[in-house]
Design goal:
The radius of gyration is 53 Å and the shape is elongated. α8 runs antiparallel to α9. It is mainly alpha-helical. The longest helix has 93 residues. Keywords: Cell membrane, Coiled coil, Cytoplasm, Cytoskeleton, Endocytosis, Lipid-binding, Lysosome, Membrane, SH3 domain. GO terms for molecular function: lipid binding. It holds the Pfam family SH3_1.
Length: 584
């Protein structure tokens, strides 16, 4: 069944129906566009949320960064950032596959519908024009036939009139004959016009309009089919990223299951263990012996005391030792009481009740001790050798500082080696540069190496004093002579070739004899595609599932990783679409 056969007389209905269908497409495009805006805003809010709570990402030296609960939270923020990337991908696909695509087809449908309707109007106008001609010929035929009848009646009347002359009769007959001839011509013209109109009418209702209606039906069915595909794409767009979103949610679940409370407790112990022994018991200080002596000794002589009960006792509590760099005597307000005068009463400081005075003095000494403890814990004096720290923490900080110095020293050694190679190249090929221009850089690098060696020796000494193992990074030291030759030594001056400098820390690239163009950046790893990626946006690169690519640049937190193919093509791909293995 088709419109041309069943709806041959429903032109207005067909026109209204096709217009309503196009309006439905426009409405769906607007709906998809608003959904796209919602997804974009949602993704933006998720990214801002992740960024807001991930501000300490660069502070790797903070103690809590090693805790599994903290790392799990950072993993959740990373997964949420990847999840936001998938929402952005949904918005992009909705815009490309539904909004833009349907809008383009909608314009084509409108233009095609307009053409068909114009053809229908032209056919209808042509039929109406033919009908007007038919009606005109019909009216003329009717008018001329009446005139012919009147002329015939007049001729007959004249012929019967006895008073009419023969000439009048002949004239009336000629007039009637002429009118009859004209009426016959009008009749023939009317018959021709009628035949023409019937033919065009038949063509209009059985050929032209059914063809146009069938074309409009085909147009409407294609419109419905395209709209149905848009409905399916609305769902498939989200289904396509559901596996990756599922992986993001699995990553969040994994982050939660990876939290190890026992391990976190051990890390807290490791980070904050002081290494001190617990303080021993305090000795009993018997102040009553001094009081008894003061009351029983004679006022004529000095007391004979073999042990001074007021003498300050030593304390093993480290917070009040010399290591704290603060002077905080245990009994600061106390001093040895003056001996009784040989000619007078005891010192008025004791008054009549020496025991009350002693207890009062004890209370005075306890409060300053607690106050000085809080002050010491709040603002210790920081020293270069970290002597203000507990032994265990001091060893760790010294070891960490020593590792940093060794890394910096290795970089300076690599730079010195590169400068030496450049100097050799300039000496062999003067047109490439002046060797003397590198003298200042070589001299500065040598000074930096000597300075760092001095700091390394100093920190190794402090670490040995603190009881550390001295497990520092090894490096290759190079000293250059005037000819650019270099010797290799270990930090203690012995020959060593155990380690090689890290190529990622080299300052200058090595020069070859032919001085070829600089090579592309060395890959830092490789990745395998888990899903297909079209790479339609500018700066991206397409990939197929299972394809292996070289990683050139890690994800900087925006959800994209830079990769390279074997043929040299480079671009960005979603980090969540691949599994990455970095070089060790």
């Amino acid at each position: 069944m088709d419109w041309g056969t069943e709806l041959w007389d429903q032109y207005d209905i067909i026109e209204k129906h096709t217009q309503s269908g196009l309006e439905l497409v426009e409405k769906y495009v607007k709906f998809a566009k608003e959904r796209t805006e919602i997804e974009q805003n949602y993704a933006k809010q998720l990214r801002n949320l992740s960024k807001k709570y991930n501000q300490k990402r660069s502070s790797k030296d903070e103690p809590e960064c090693r805790l599994s609960s903290y790392q799990a939270f950072l993993d959740i923020l990373t997964e949420m950032n990847d999840y936001a990337g998938q929402r952005e991908l949904i918005a992009e696909n909705l815009m490309m596959n539904i909004c833009i695509d349907l809008t383009k087809y909608l314009q084509d449908f409108k233009q095609e519908r307009k053409t068909y309707l114009m053809d229908a109007k032209k056919a209808q106008q042509s039929l109406e024009s033919t009908y007007k001609q038919l009606d005109s010929s019909k009216k003329r035929f009717e008018r001329e036939w009446r005139e012919a009848e009147r002329a015939a009646q007049y001729a007959e009347k004249t012929d019967q009139d006895i008073n009419a002359t023969k000439a009048d009769v002949e004239k009336a007959k000629q007039q009637a004959h002429m009118r009859a001839h004209v009426a016959d011509e009008c009749k023939n013209d009317y018959a021709a016009q009628l035949q023409k109109y019937n033919k065009e009418q038949n063509q209009f209702y059985f050929s032209d309009m059914p063809l146009i209606f069938n074309k409009l039906q085909d147009l409407d069915e294609r419109r419905i089919q395209k709209l149905a595909q848009g409905y399916v794409l609305f769902s498939d767009t989200e289904k396509h990223v559901m596996p990756i979103i599922g992986k993001c949610l699995e990553g969040i679940t994994k982050a939660g299951t990876n939290v190890n409370e026992k391990n976190d407790s051990m890390i807290v112990i490791e980070q904050n263990k002081s290494g001190f022994e617990r303080p021993g018991d305090l000795e009993f200080e018997d102040y009553s012996q001094g009081i008894n002596r003061a009351s029983s000794d004679s006022s004529l002589g000095t007391p004979k005391v073999s042990v001074d009960p007021w003498k300050k006792k030593t304390n093993n509590f480290w917070l009040f030792s010399k290591r704290s760099k603060l002077s905080s005597p245990v009994l600061a307000p106390f001093s040895t009481p003056p001996a009784p005068s040989p000619n007078g009463p005891p010192s008025p400081k004791f008054g009549r009740d020496p025991l009350s005075y002693c207890l009062k003095e004890i209370n005075k000494t306890v409060k300053p001790r607690i106050s000085s403890f809080r002050t010491l814990r709040r603002s210790p004096t920081v020293t270069e050798d970290f002597a203000h720290l507990p032994p265990e923490q001091r060893r760790k900080r010294l070891q960490q500082k020593l590792d940093e110095i060794c890394k910096e020293l290795q970089k300076e050694v690599d730079q010195s080696e590169a400068l030496g190679k450049m100097k050799d190249v300039y000496e062999k090929n003067p047109q490439m540069g002046d060797p003397a221009s590198l003298a200042s850089q070589i001299n500065q690098t040598s000074q930096n190496i000597e300075r760092l060696r001095g700091e390394q020796s100093k920190y190794e000494t402090w670490l040995a004093e603190a009881g550390g193992r001295g497990d520092t990074l090894r490096y290759k030291a190079h000293s250059f002579n005037n000819n650019g030759a270099n010797d290799v030594h270990s930090p203690d001056g012995a020959y060593s070739d155990e380690s090689t400098p890290d190529p990622s820390q080299a300052i200058y690239a090595e020069f070859d004899d032919d001085f070829e163009d600089e090579d592309l950046a060395a890959p830092i790893g490789k990745c395998t595609a888990m899903y297909n990626f079209p790479g339609a946006s500018e700066g991206t690169i397409a990939m197929q599932e299972g394809e292996v690519l070289a990683v050139v640049e890690e994800d900087k937190g925006d959800g994209w990783t830079r990769v390279r193919r074997n043929n040299g093509d480079e671009g960005y791909i979603p980090t969540s679409y691949v599994t990455i293995t970095l070089n060790k």
